[in-house]
Write a structure and sequence with these properties.
Number of domains of chain A: 1
CATH topology of chain A: Cytochrome C Oxidase, Chain A
CATH class of chain A: Mainly Alpha
Structural class of chain B: mainly alpha
Largest interface: A-B, 42 and 36 residues
Order of helices and strands of chain B: HHHHH
Strand order of the largest sheet of chain A: 1-4
Number of domains of chain B: 1
Number of strands of chain B: 0
Helix content of chain A: 55-70%
CATH architecture of chain A: Up-down Bundle
Number of strands of chain A: 6
CATH topology of chain B: Four Helix Bundle (Hemerythrin (Met), subunit A)
Low-confidence stretches of chain A: 1-9
Oligomer: heterodimer
CATH superfamily of chain A: Cytochrome c oxidase-like, subunit I domain
Strand content of chain B: under 5%
Helix content of chain B: 55-70%
Mean pLDDT of chain A: 92
Shape of chain B: elongated
Distance between the termini of chain B: 79 Å
Chain lengths: 593, 224
């Protein structure tokens, strides 16, 4: 019998439909709401990428019904150059903010962080609820820009000034479209700050008896480190967006220089700094890369350990490496600005930590590979996607070595090489982390198992497809193919069009493979096999409670933790795994002293 | 057999309400009758940690505004010197005074919570004074904005004025949150459901707003 101590319940179980399913205070419901929002955003983002890819492969191809999205942006169902850029901007914004940040961090973190720490809920449930609904509003403000007069902004997800700050004279979407974009992102920042506040406080203050910091699973560490990054990064992006909005609506001159002539018009602004936006944006932007990927590192480690039936080579080193990534991520942002005319010494200053940051990244990878070596990995959808994450992270990370050096980056900057790099290391890797987490935790979240056959098919198609799409990007970049071009009419680009066609076909096939996942998700939710409380024989606290967990996570009794999170294959133990709540005494070399 | 006589608990009136000593948090309400021993020990109150986390985010936001000001000042020769409205200095005295009154009220409320009611007959009085000083501060800031506007100095007149308005309005908006927190504390005190961690968190936030304003005034005075 486990030693349990009674605790009060932070808030009673909801009784009304609104409180239960809409404005819920329950972190588990909020986590599911975030997941649903991320799934919707991912489908929209993927559809936008399909439209762009078809246009890049076959520029004159009429996509049926496209004019419904914008009659001026897609006359005759063919994209105009400007509308291509507008869709590209929305693709990037939606995917970075509302998928890669929302799903691995906010969705899974909300659902599982309180459970893995042994808490009944987040300490500030109202802030938590507001976090989701603020994010929800931010998402629809962004989507609303599709339906304003000249459509969404075309400035790219980085919204470089002065283009982003000069108003409608800069092109379609550069007026109201930018204002909606900046408003959406500012709102999103508020939501993430509320979320980070809860995540940090939950980790520090809400742990149950016996749950020391080092006994937290790697997932909890990933979310905690990410929330610290989010707190500092989004707090900087928000004022940047406010200043950008003021340049539009109040006539201020933060980002637009004097005497700027656009389309034969002298703009009324004076003295603004175009580089100021880049500084503010990338101080957020580079940590954002790690905000997207560190939760995935935690999820992948957690999934691999459970399926290897042994812990990582070093629990502590993995934690310290993730923390090092977070700290260094603030020191490297200038590497996005190597071609901004910065002093070469400044380039060196930013280049050095960029190369240094590869050390903790490499350590994390070596931890995974070294731990996998010799293990008898259980092959299932979750572990396959975890392996896929490792593969994508390595493949995308290797190109980072090149881009970290100013002399090479100047050549490759703004080419498809960069697009391939960040899509693999940040986009696809993070997506694979989301998939690994979904297949792994779906039973706990819904009480039903996902279909493994469909899951494996989804993995194979996604894995091969992702490489078919993004590895050729590197070749295109080395060949000089500049990103954000909507057509390839220059002599040196024409021979590359077949490569683009190949990528487009791969993107379409890979995209359809994601529909397998969506089908599996929905079908399993209602028709999947009933899941047990601990279907993967896991050890952390989410597996010691009912499936799905009750309103206050652990019923009447709170858990007491006796062990480190990953006690697998312990010699002399009564079973293959020892749960954190088991009072069984063990003599494990992996147990923290 | 000897009988052990336990001394009655002593209340140290000079001691501030506990900060992170693990006697409550959101799980445990401080009893209205001041029966502190009934409060169980748990982890540090999340409100205590939470307020520091929130203040860290606000610090980052104003650090971003500050760095924007510094970079923008050096970007072009269009920077103008402006004379700050003199009411800002009076407002500074108001917000410093409000921190003092809040600290007095915090000690009195602590005494009240400790069950020593004779030295704190009306623990809410100083909270009301703090609230009034806060409202006066916001009114004074509004007066400064109206005064500048009436003199023809708007948000877009010059980037110096842009930063003046942005920084002072951003601070005032945060301060309004602090006023809301004070109203909440007063309401909870009246209903005898005030948590010590709530009082501590609110007062920390308020003091931070004071420190932030002094910093901003120095920045504006030095840079504008």
């Amino acid at each position: 019998m486990h030693d349990m101590s009674a605790h009060a319940v932070p808030h009673g179980a909801p009784t009304s439909f609104i409180r239960k399913h809409v404005f819920s205070l329950d972190h588990k419901v909020i986590g599911k709401q975030y997941y649903a929002l991320a799934l919707l955003a991912a489908l929209i983002g993927m559809a936008l990428s399909w439209i762009m890819r078809i246009h890049l492969g076959w520029g004159s191809f009429a996509i049926p019904g496209l004019h419904l999205l914008s009659s001026t942006g897609a006359p005759g169902n063919v994209l105009t150059p400007e509308y291509y850029l507008q869709l590209m901007t929305m693709h990037g914004t939606i995917m970075v903010f509302f998928v890669l940040t929302t799903a691995p961090f906010a969705a899974f973190g909300n659902f599982f962080l309180p459970i893995q720490t042994g808490a009944e809920d987040m300490p500030f449930p109202h802030f938590n609820m507001m976090s989701f609904w603020v994010t929800f509003v931010g998402f629809w403000v962004l989507i609303a820009s599709f339906f304003v007069a000249d459509g969404p902004t075309l400035g790219g997800w980085t919204q470089y000034a002065p283009l982003s700050a000069i108003g409608s004279v800069g092109g379609p979407g550069q007026g109201l479209g930018v204002v909606l974009w900046a408003t959406s992102i500012a709102i999103f920042c508020v939501g993430q700050l509320f979320g980070s506040l809860n995540f940090i406080t939950t980790t520090l203050d809400m742990r149950c008896k016996g749950m020391s910091l080092m006994r937290l699973p790697l997932t909890a560490w990933g979310w905690f480190i990410t929330s610290v990054m989010g707190l500092t990064a989004f707090a900087v992006l928000m004022p940047a967006c406010i200043l950008l909005i003021l340049d539009h609506v109040a006539g201020t001159s933060f980002f637009v220089a004097s005497n700027l002539v656009i389309n034969d018009q002298v703009l009324p602004h004076s003295g603004g700094s175009t580089l100021l936006w880049q500084h503010l944006f990338w101080f957020f932007g580079h940590p954002e890369v790690y905000i997207a990927i560190v939760p995935g590192m935690g999820i992948v480690s957690h999934v691999l350990i459970t399926n290897m039936r042994k812990p990582m080579l070093s629990h502590r080193v993995l934690i310290y490496s993730m923390a090092a990534l977070a700290v260094l991520s603030y020191m490297v942002y200038g590497h996005h600005m190597f071609v901004s005319g910065m002093n070469p010494i400044s380039s060196l200053v930013f280049s050095f930590p960029t190369l240094v940051i590869t050390i903790p990244s490499t350590i994390v990878v070596l931890m995974w590979l070294g731990s996998l070596y010799g293990s008898k990995l259980r092959i299932n959808s979750a572990s396959l996607f975890a392996l896929g994450f490792v593969s994508m992270f390595i493949s995308g990370g290797v190109s980072g070595f090149f881009l970290a050096q100013p002399s090479i980056d100047i050549m490759l900057h703004a080419t498809y090489f960069v697009v391939g790099h960040f899509h693999l290391v940040m986009g696809v890797a993070a997506m694979f982390g989301i998939f690994a987490g979904t297949y792994f935790w779906f039973p706990k979240m819904t009480g039903r198992m996902m279909n493994e056959t469909l899951g494996k098919a989804h993995f194979i198609l996604s894995f091969i497809g992702a490489y078919c799409i993004f590895m050729p990007f590197h070749y295109l970049g080395i060949a000089g193919n500049v990103r954000r071009y909507q057509a390839f009419t220059d002599d040196y680009l024409i021979p590359l069009i077949p490569v683009h066609k190949f990528i487009t076909v791969a993107a379409l096939v890979t995209g359809f493979a994601q529909l397998i996942f969506v089908y599996n998700l929905i079908h399993s939710r209602f028709k999947g096999a009933i899941a047990s409380d601990n279907p993967w024989q896991g050890t952390s606290l989410e597996w010691s409670t009912a499936t799905p967990p009750p309103h206050n996570n652990f019923g009447d009794k709170m858990p007491v933790v006796y062990h480190d999170p990953y006690q697998y294959s312990v010699e002399g133990a009564s079973a293959d795994f020892i749960m954190q709540t088991s009072p069984e005494k063990i003599n494990s070399p992996n147990e923290e002293k | 057999m000897a009988t052990t006589v336990h001394e009655p608990p002593k209340h140290d009136l000079e001691r501030l309400p506990s900060q992170g000593s693990g006697n409550g948090g959101w799980r445990n309400l401080v009893p209205a009758d001041g029966d502190l021993p009934r409060v169980k020990d748990h982890a540090p109150p999340p409100a205590s940690t939470g307020i520091w986390v929130g203040l860290a985010a606000i610090t980052m936001t104003f650090a971003a505004f500050t760095s924007a000001l510094v970079v923008r000042q050096g970007a072009a020769p269009d920077w103008q010197h402006i004379t700050l409205p003199s009411i800002l200095y009076f407002n500074t005295l108001l917000i410093i005074a409000s921190s003092v009154t809040l600290e007095i009220s915090r000690r009195r409320v602590a005494a009240f919570m400790g069950g020593i009611k004779d030295r704190a007959a009306n623990p809410a009085r100083w909270l009301y004074i703090t609230l009034a000083l806060g409202v006066l501060f916001v009114a004074g800031q509004t007066f400064a904005w109206v005064q500048l506007k009436s003199q023809g100095f708007g948000l877009a007149t010059n980037v110096s004025y842009s930063f003046f308005y942005v920084l002072t309005v951003a601070h005032a908006l945060h301060l309004l949150g602090g006023l809301g927190g004070l109203v909440r504390v007063i309401a909870k005190l009246h209903n005898s459901v005030l948590r010590r961690s709530t009082l501590d968190a609110t007062s920390r936030y308020w003091h931070f707003m004071g420190v932030l304003w002094v910093y901003l005034l120095f920045l504006l005075w030095m840079k504008l």
